[in-house]
Specification:
By secondary structure, this protein is of the alpha/beta class. The chain folds into 3 domains: 2-36 and 72-136, 2-Layer Sandwich (Alpha-Beta Plaits), CATH 3.30.70.920; 174-473, Rossmann fold (3-Layer(aba) Sandwich), CATH 3.40.50; 482-581, Immunoglobulin-like, CATH 2.60.40. It contains 15 helices and 22 strands. Strands 6-9-5-10-11-12-13 form a 7-stranded parallel β-sheet, sandwiched between helices. The protein has a 4-stranded antiparallel β-sheet with strand order 2-3-1-4, sandwiched between helices. Helix 8 (244-253) packs parallel to helix 11 (420-437) and helix 12 crosses helix 13. The radius of gyration is 27 Å and the shape is globular.
Length: 584
């Protein structure tokens, strides 16, 4: 008896609090392998382990096939599977690891788990184990998977409608409830040029897509070619799980002309459940990783994930701010790897801006993710939107998009919702359109051009990032302005304040331009800024002098009259443009 107790204490002390106090629970681990068996696969023959679409995407972006693409050694996996007491749940080629679970019950105690772990650690090809948490086994009754036949009829009707519709030549009124949130980013203008974009594939990671096929304009999710996966329950049915993913997807996919049009209604979608809405566990980061590898194999172009992590139910596993290095966490590493494989990754910043944590979560800190915060209907930062920077001072979030009182498309109608979870799909759809219009442009160039088309591009910070992007402008910056016969002064007819404060001008010939800012002081107009610039033919002259001026004055807490009744005068050889602002 003493020996058994001593051994149990030994195992628990080594592995920490490995298991929750439950008589019926499951512990999860990552088993890392030391190497891969290169005799089974060769990077010179990627067709043996990568899909054609995945290979084509790598070729398009000049991404080399490397050892991370090689599968995990199957012999290692088989040996693990043959080990009594464990289940192999998933395989990660990017980490060269396997996720396993070990049940704790009357037959298999904590002591037995200690012995199993010791056995695994002693295997020659095992590099290390990482504890992911212990979850109580709850057996919740799910809603029936049976789908009413009427929705299959609606699915076919929507498929036919999309097939026969004109190529996205929408009028403003066609957007209905979604117009205000889409116009922020220049989405209606992009739609005029994008077309059906059915070859563009977006993967959405979330906690479930409960009743998504019941939303008017998303019934075609029941199309037989629709790909869905569930990495939580491993049952590959996502329609009866959490509602959050349904709400998120609606911002992207809904096609209900006259009522609601999403930001990318004609794209192809892959729906992945990686999140268990009933708990917070490190296993969810592994789910995210496995999902990213899966959609890479499908050849997807963009991942949109309105998920984030920092605090877990087992406190010892929680992340701290010092870990926001951009690649420390499993999920941030996965986001970076997906990007390196040619997938654009868009993630939400988090809703902790007015909470004690305040910071962005993970993978919002990832080096290669585009992290999206939320702004209100006037373009100002929403107080709940999480802030950066990262621990080493990198700018995060990257951008802001509408996420305050935005219209959610639901099965029973529309309602206003808040969150960076909603800002993310609006942004993702706009980005998908831009990528589709510029198919051969590198991901780095796409990211750079979005920055150049954003409000705070010359003065990014930890609240706004690079600001609110104008994707219509970004597309013009990529394709070039037509300046053969005329100068181009960029005008965003739907601009909010921060967008309106910026200037973009391209002349048809070399010329001097003059910028003047005036304000009213004690009833008289006074010039507070004046400067002349030489702009060369075809060069894009961009100025955020108004934004810089306002930011500087606000920091100095100048009197209100210096921030109100401002007028910008922009003089060129072809004419004079004037903008007036009432700044409160």
């Amino acid at each position: 008896m003493f020996l058994r107790i001593s051994l149990l204490f030994f195992f628990v002390s080594i592995f920490g609090d490995l298991c929750a106090n439950s008589d019926d629970s499951t512990s999860y681990y990552l088993v890392y392998f030391k190497d891969k068996d290169f005799s089974q696969n060769n990077i010179e023959h990627p067709e043996k382990f990568l899909s054609l679409k995945s290979i084509e995407r790598r070729k398009k972006y000049n991404i080399k096939i490397d050892t991370f693409d090689l599968p995990v050694d199957q012999n290692y996996v088989d040996l693990l599977r043959s080990t009594n007491g464990i289940k192999v749940l998933g395989i990660s080629k990017w980490l060269n690891a396997a996720e396993i679970s070990i049940d704790i019950n009357e037959k298999q105690t904590k002591f037995d788990i200690g012995l199993i772990i010791q056995k695994i650690k002693s295997i020659s090809f095992v590099k290390k184990l990482k504890y992911l948490g212990t979850l109580e086994n709850t057996h919740m009754d799910k809603d029936s998977n049976e789908i009413d036949g009427i929705y299959y009829k609606k699915s076919k009707a929507l498929i036919d409608l999309k097939r026969d519709s004109l190529i996205c030549l929408f009028k403003d009124e066609d957007y209905g409830k979604s117009f205000d949130q889409n116009k922020f980013l220049g989405i209606p203008e992009l739609h005029q040029r994008t077309g059906k974009m059915s070859s563009f594939q977006i993967a959405v990671f979330d906690a479930g897509f409960r009743n998504a096929y019941k939303v008017s304009g998303m019934e075609d999710l029941l199309d037989s070619v629709q790909i869905v996966r569930d990495y939580v329950d491993h049952d590959n049915s996502v329609w009866e799980d959490d509602q959050h993913g349904c709400n998120v997807l609606g911002f992207l996919k809904t096609y209900n002309p006259g009522n609601y049009i999403g930001s990318a209604p004609f794209a192809n979608y892959t729906l992945i459940r990686t999140e268990n809405a009933n708990l917070e566990s490190l296993t969810e980061e592994v789910n995210w990783l496995l999902a990213a590898e899966f959609v890479d194999s499908l050849g997807v172009d963009l991942i949109s994930a309105s998920l984030g992590y920092h605090a877990f139910d087992e406190n010892q596993l929680s992340h701290n701010y010092e870990e926001s290095t951009g690649d420390s966490s499993i999920v941030s590493h996965a986001a970076n790897m997906a990007y390196k494989k040619g997938i654009m990754v868009v993630v939400s910043a988090g809703n902790e801006g007015n909470q004690s944590w305040r910071h962005i979560g993970f993978p919002a800190d990832a080096l290669n993710s585009l992290t999206v915060g939320a702004c209100d209907e006037k373009g100002y930062h929403a107080k709940f939107s999480s802030m950066g920077p990262t621990i080493e001072g990198r700018i995060k979030p990257d951008f802001l998009a509408p996420g305050y009182k935005v219209n959610v498309a639901a099965a029973y109608g529309f309602y206003a919702g808040n969150g960076t979870s909603y800002a993310t799909p609006i942004f993702s759809g706009a980005l998908a359109n831009l990528m589709y219009l510029n198919k051969n442009t590198s991901l780095d160039s796409i990211r750079s051009i979005i920055r150049n088309a954003s409000t705070h591009r010359h003065m990014p910070d930890s609240i706004y990032g690079y600001g609110i992007p104008d994707f219509d402008l970004a597309d013009h910056l990529l394709s070039g302005f037509d300046t053969i016969k005329r100068d181009v002064f960029w005008i965003n007819k739907h601009a909010v304040l921060f967008q309106d404060l910026n200037i973009y001008y391209t002349p048809s010939h070399n010329q001097n331009i003059k910028i003047t800012i005036t304000t009213t002081i004690k009833g008289k107009r006074k010039t507070i800024y004046r400067k002349t610039y030489l702009v060369e033919k075809g060069q894009v002259f961009d100025s955020d002098i108004m934004l810089q001026y306002l930011s500087e004055k606000r920091k100095l807490k100048k009197k209100k009259w210096q921030l109100s009744n401002l007028e910008l005068i922009f003089e060129t050889e072809s004419g004079t443009f004037q903008k007036s602002f009432q700044i409160k």
